[in-house]
Design the sequence.
C-alpha cells in the first residue's frame, strides 16, 4: 500500500481504483469520536426538526383547537380537513403551473447556455470573452432591480398575466450562474480529447454533441437542478407579472392563501406541507442526483 | 462588422489546419454564443438601462412615462429612509453571511466524514432547502404569530426581533445548501495532508485550523459570493414576515422599491431606487470578481 501511495502523487482524489482500500486507510486515521461536533450536530438537528414538527402537527389540528394551543403538543383529534381546504382552493392547478414553468426554464437555460459555455471555453477571442464577462457581471444583477422596466416591457409585449411572463425572465436570470457552472465543467475536458476527435474529422458541432455534452453531464445536471429551483422558488416575477388564477404558480398561490385563509393558520401550514411533498418525493427518489447536482454549484 | 469577420477567418484557419495536418481541433464559431447573449441582453440588460431611463420620469404605471428631470433622484437622496434602508441591507447581508458561514462550515466539515450517522443526519439537515422561500417565510410567519405560535411574545414587533427573525429564516433555508458546498470542499482535501499532520503530532483542532480552513479557502469564496448575492433576494421573507416593519426598520432596498412602485404607484421614484440597487450590486459584483478571481479561466485540475 505504501508503495502504491508513493507512486501516485495524490492517491485519495483519484476516484476509480480500490475504494475499499481508501476507506480502510481512512478508518485507520479516524480516532476517537468528536464529541463537540456531535453535540453541535444534535443542536442543529433540533433547529431543523422543531419547526417542521410544529408545522406538521398544527396542520393536522382543527382550527378552533389550534388557537391558544402549544404548537408542539400533538392534536387531540387529528384531522385532514385543512388539507382538503387547500386542495379545494386551486393547489393542484398552481402546482401544475409551477411544474410547467420549471420545465420551460430548464429547457431554455440548457439550449442557450451550453453552446455559449462551449464557445467561452474553446474560442478565445474578443467576442467570446466579452460574452463570458457579460454573464459574469450578470451574476450580481438583482432581479428586483429590473422588475419595474420588465413590467413595462411585458405589458408592451402583451405577455402580462401569462405563464410566459414568468418563464422568460426567470430563465434569463438563471443563466449567469448556469454559465459559470458549465464553463467550470467544460474547462476540465482536455485538449487531447478534442484533438483525438479532430483526427476523426469531427466538426465543432459534432464535438459538441459527442464529446462536450457527454463529458459535461455533471455540470449539466447541476444546471438542471439549479434552474428548476429558480423556477420553484421564484416569487417576485409571478407576483408582479401575473394577476389571475390562470397562470398563478405555487409560491404566489401560497402567498395568496395568507389573506384567503386569514386566521386559519392550520390550513396555511397545510398548504406549506403540501408544497413540500412533491419535491420531497423527488428528494427521496433521486437524492444522490439532487445533492450531487447542488454540490456542483459550489464548484470544485 | 469587421470583428465578426475576424472570428470567422479564425474558425476557417482552424478547419484548414485540421484538413491539412490534423493537429489542431476546430473551434466553435463565436456566433454560437449569440442567442444566449441576445436573450439575456433583452431580459436583463435592456431592463437595466430602462430602469435608469424611468428614474428620470414620472409614471404611475398607466399611460406613458413623463419626463421629470432629476426630481426622483433629488427625492431619493433626501429620503431618510434610503440611509436607513441601505444600513439595514448591509447589516442583513453581513450578519447573514457570518451566521451562515460559521454554521455551514462546521456542519459541512462534520458531514464530510463518511460515518453512517453523519450521512443520515446530513440527509435530514437538507430538508429545509426543499421548501421554497415563500413556504419557509409562511411557516415562520405562522410559528412567530404572537396569538398562536411556537414563540410566545411579539418577536416581529420589535426591531431587533424582526431583524434576527429574517436572518434566522434566511439561514434556516440556505444553510443546508452551503453545508453541502462545504461538505464537497472538505471531501476534496487530500487525505495525505491529514496523515502527515497526524504524524507530526497535530491534534484535531490544529488540523482543522492549519489544514481544513486554508484548504477550504476557495470553497468559502464561492459560498460567500453566493450568500452575499443571495441575501439581496430576501425580498419575500421581508414581504411576508415583517412587511418592512416595525415601521420601516426592516425595509431592505428591494422592499423600499416594491413599496414605492407597487403600493404607492410612484414608478419613477421606484426606478431611482432600482437604479441605485443596480449600481450597488454591480459595484459589489465587480469587487467580488476582482477579490476572488472568480472569472479566471482556470481549472483546479490544471498543473496536477
Sequence:
Amino acid at each position: 500500500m505504501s508503495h502504491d501511495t508513493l507512486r501516485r502523487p495524490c492517491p485519495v482524489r483519484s476516484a476509480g481504483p480500490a475504494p475499499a482500500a481508501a476507506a480502510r486507510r481512512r478508518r485507520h486515521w479516524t480516532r476517537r469520536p468528536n464529541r463537540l461536533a456531535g453535540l453541535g450536530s444534535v443542536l442543529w438537528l433540533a433547529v431543523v426538526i422543531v419547526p417542521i414538527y410544529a408545522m406538521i402537527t398544527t396542520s393536522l389540528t382543527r382550527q378552533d383547537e389550534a388557537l391558544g394551543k402549544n404548537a408542539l403538543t400533538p392534536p387531540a383529534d387529528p384531522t385532514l380537513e385543512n388539507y382538503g381546504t387547500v386542495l379545494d382552493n386551486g393547489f393542484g392547478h398552481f402546482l401544475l403551473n409551477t411544474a410547467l414553468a420549471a420545465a420551460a426554464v430548464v429547457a431554455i437555460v440548457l439550449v442557450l447556455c451550453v453552446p455559449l459555455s462551449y464557445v467561452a471555453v474553446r474560442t478565445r477571442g474578443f467576442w467570446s470573452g466579452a460574452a463570458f464577462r457579460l454573464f459574469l457581471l450578470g451574476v450580481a444583477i438583482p432581479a428586483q432591480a429590473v422588475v419595474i422596466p420588465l413590467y413595462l416591457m411585458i405589458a408592451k409585449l402583451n405577455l402580462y398575466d401569462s405563464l410566459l411572463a414568468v418563464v422568460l425572465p426567470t430563465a434569463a436570470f438563471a443563466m449567469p450562474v448556469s454559465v459559470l457552472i458549465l464553463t467550470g465543467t467544460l474547462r476540465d475536458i482536455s485538449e487531447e480529447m478534442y484533438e483525438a476527435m479532430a483526427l476523426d474529422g469531427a466538426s465543432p458541432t459534432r464535438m459538441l454533441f459527442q464529446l462536450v455534452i457527454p463529458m459535461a453531464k455533471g455540470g449539466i445536471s447541476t444546471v438542471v437542478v439549479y434552474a428548476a429551483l429558480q423556477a420553484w422558488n421564484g416569487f417576485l416575477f409571478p407576483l408582479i407579472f401575473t394577476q389571475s388564477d390562470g397562470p398563478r404558480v405555487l409560491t404566489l398561490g401560497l402567498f395568496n392563501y395568507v389573506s384567503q385563509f386569514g386566521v386559519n393558520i392550520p390550513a396555511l401550514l397545510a398548504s406549506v406541507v403540501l408544497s413540500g411533498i412533491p419535491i420531497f418525493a423527488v428528494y427521496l427518489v433521486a437524492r444522490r442526483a439532487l445533492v450531487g447536482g447542488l454540490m456542483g454549484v459550489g464548484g470544485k | 462588422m469587421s470583428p465578426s469577420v475576424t472570428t470567422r477567418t479564425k474558425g476557417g484557419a482552424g478547419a484548414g489546419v485540421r484538413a491539412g495536418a490534423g493537429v489542431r481541433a476546430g473551434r466553435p464559431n463565436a456566433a454560437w454564443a449569440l442567442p444566449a447573449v441576445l436573450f439575456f441582453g433583452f431580459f436583463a440588460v435592456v431592463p437595466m438601462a430602462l430602469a435608469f431611463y424611468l428614474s428620470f420620469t414620472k409614471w404611475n404605471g398607466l399611460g406613458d412615462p413623463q419626463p421629470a428631470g432629476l426630481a426622483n433622484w433629488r427625492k431619493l437622496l433626501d429620503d431618510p429612509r434610503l440611509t436607513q434602508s441601505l444600513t439595514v441591507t448591509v447589516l442583513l447581508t453581513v450578519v447573514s453571511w457570518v451566521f451562515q458561514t460559521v454554521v455551514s462550515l462546521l456542519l459541512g466539515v462534520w458531514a464530510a466524514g463518511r460515518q453512517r450517522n453523519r450521512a443520515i443526519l446530513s440527509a435530514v439537515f437538507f430538508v429545509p432547502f426543499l421548501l421554497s422561500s415563500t413556504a419557509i417565510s409562511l411557516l415562520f410567519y405562522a410559528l412567530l404569530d404572537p396569538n398562536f405560535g411556537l414563540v410566545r411574545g411579539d418577536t416581529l414587533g420589535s426591531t431587533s426581533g424582526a431583524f434576527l427573525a429574517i436572518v434566522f429564516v434566511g439561514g434556516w433555508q440556505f444553510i443546508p445548501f452551503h453545508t453541502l458546498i462545504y461538505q464537497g470542499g472538505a471531501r476534496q482535501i487530500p487525505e495525505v495532508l491529514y496523515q502527515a499532520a497526524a504524524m507530526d503530532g497535530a491534534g484535531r483542532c490544529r488540523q482543522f485550523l492549519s489544514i481544513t480552513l486554508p484548504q477550504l479557502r476557495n470553497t468559502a469564496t464561492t459560498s460567500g459570493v453566493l450568500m452575499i448575492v443571495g441575501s439581496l433576494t430576501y425580498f419575500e421573507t421581508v414581504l411576508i414576515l415583517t412587511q418592512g416593519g416595525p415601521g420601516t426598520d426592516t425595509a431592505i432596498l428591494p422592499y423600499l422599491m416594491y413599496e414605492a412602485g407597487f403600493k404607492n404607484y410612484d414608478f419613477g421614484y421606484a426606478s431611482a431606487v432600482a437604479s441605485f440597487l443596480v449600481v450597488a450590486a454591480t459595484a459589489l459584483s465587480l469587487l467580488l470578481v476582482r477579490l476572488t478571481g472568480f472569472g479566471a479561466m482556470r481549472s483546479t485540475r490544471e498543473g496536477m
Summary: Strands of chain B lie at 57-58, 66-67. Chain B is about 70% helix and 0% strand. Chain B touches chain A through 123 residues (CB under 8 Å).
